[in-house]
Fold this protein.
Amino acid sequence: MDLETMTAQLERLRADALVAVEGAADAAALEQVHVSFLGRKGAITEILRGIAGLDAADRPRIGAVANDVRGAVEAAAVVRDEALRAAELESRLAAETVDVTTPGRRVARGSRHPIAETVAAIDEVFGRFGFVVHEGPEIEDDVTNFQMLNIPADHPARDLWATLYVDIDDHLLRTHTSPGQIRVMRETRPPIRALLPGRCFRYEAVDASHAFEFFQVEGLMVDEGTSLADLRGLLDEFAHALFGAARATRFRPGYYPFTEPSVAFDVECVVCDGGGCPACGRTGWMTILGAGMVHPVVLRYGGIDPERYQGFAFGMGVERIAMLRHGVHDLRLFMENDLRFLEQFR
Ligand code: DAH
């Protein structure tokens, strides 16, 4: 091969290589182009092999052309490589773009369950009068749940509490919070002002006003000279705080084995304000709790001398109070925990 032919071939390769470099779509393709023109077995290298066949005087000249072509292709490859990197970065940035002006996702905020909130409201009112919260066990013994509350075995009054028994000697799920009275009397000394909120259990068919699991708040006051009038005054304050200051109240005779006398405490119907409606059985009154003067037998079981001390007690169903406060007509709603229901109490 002579100088002219070789030079012409190199120039054609330069043109081909520059087109190929420009057309490389990504880094891998560019590398491929580099290898095929400039690599050890590349087209340009291949041509330079023939340099040995040239006259000695021509060799430096073809060497200069070859270097120039190689340099031009290398330089074009560097430029192309930078362009490809820049384009790749550009598209990655575009894909990862975060729009900082997009509104955030709202985090759902929880709120207090209406039953817990009602217990807190009850605690708060009695707390103003010095009542301190105590808690007794949910699994009770028969003696404390019944016998010490003046309800001996086989006493017909046991029918008031359909009991769920636990498979342990004489234990049961407490049917009311009243056994807490015995525990407080045994653990503390008068004057006593105790509030006992807690979960209770009964073997009941479930309907809009009955559950087999529900909450009560029990109250107990024991001191010298405690009277039914004190009880009435306290309960009036409570009723006015929860249901409105203008609401009339009344005591009706009632029966509980652990109080004597026993009363039912009524407030003017919160639905019809006393006019009479289906919610109050057209009486204009709603019973919100049971109460009475602690029976001397119960005081004695509590280790308290009934000759010196008197006490009153009361007990209320929290679901019932919550229903009246919020106009809820089915107590099952409190157990279902449907967020659409609960969200209304925020
Ligand atoms: N323990 C009663 C019940 O579950 C409620 C009650 C009535 C509690 C009168 C009392 C009370 O402390 O004096 O139905």
